[in-house]
Write a structure and sequence with these properties.
The chain starts with a helix and ends with a helix. Helix 1 packs antiparallel against helix 13. It has about 400 residues and is mainly alpha-helical. The chain is built from 13 helices and no strands.
Length: about 400
Amino acid sequence: MPIPYLLTTLLFTFVALLSAADASLVSINLVGAFPALRWVRVHFITLGILSQVIFGLLPLLVASLSKKPRPSMRWDIWLTLNVGFIALVAGFGGMNHPMIFAGGTLIFISATLLLIQLWNVRGGDAPESLKFYITGMFYLLVGIIIGTGLFLNWSDALYIKVPLEAHIHANSWGFMSLVFAGLLVDFVPMITGRPLSTTKNISLIYWGMTLGAFGLVLGPWLGGSLPPTVSGLVLHLSSTIWMVVMMISAFKESGKLNSAGAWHLVSSYLWIIAPIGMAPFIMFGIFEAGPIESTAPQALIYGWVLQFGIALIPYIARRFFLKEETPQLGGCWGSLAAATAGSLFVWASIFIVPARGALYGIGFALYAIALIHPLKELVEIARTGLQKHELA
């Protein structure tokens, strides 16, 4: 992973820890002056930590697996991503529409440039994961358009009936789900010494997740239409569970399931399955949609995306930055327990209304604790790598 991406990942991990702590203090009324913006918190995990790793890693990873020369650092992609992200966060803070538009546009340009770079690697020895990455980036572009339009009143022009839900679904079930699946296709064999599954099974999972994501975006786009939503839900959920079962099998057979990092990866998927599993109860009116839809994305990002990152980001940094041949997954049993308990408390806050503030605050305090160990890991990796770089 190139040094600029590693350093920005480290920076945004530190900010994500502070924003989780801030959310906790605000929720339990210990701090009131600087209430956290939920959009800012979520985007420091997604566009902050996650995108830095994905944008920095994918060109190197795909080139390596395709047996092609290492690509040079694309400063245009890095600059448009990070300047756009800073503009977007600044726009959120003051609800400055021109700033939000500028930020969304720059991130869209950055994602388009990365998509073109990945598209040009197709054919020949390109890995099975490449189609996951390309399709995931396409969904990211859709999510950027919808998300930027949320603040600029584009939804009517695009005939999007439920834009917030369509935005979340495009980014979560489209972009992140597909890219994460591609990373598992690539990294599980490196970690365990055996492939995740057969080419046929991986292709079936790809089509299930791709078509499932399409249905989950189309449903809210059409105002909550049940046929695309339900079919998308079934396809995406069954494909995801199938992939997780194969991952557990690979870890178990290789003896890697006894590590905290492996359990971070496995348990992270509980928190993507949980909101999908709640969808039928919402659609049929068993539970009220409002509290779940406003809070579940926080648990989704901090439970699923954060735990996935805690395990895999230090591994990626050790393998591609420190050049270790057999690096270990990130995380520890303490970070696993804190992240899991944090998600349990945040989910409990949805249903236990009298204690909602306290439960939510405790959940985010636990998320902040969970971030301490990976932050220390990344600091040590950066320090060691930069020392080697200076001596080289």
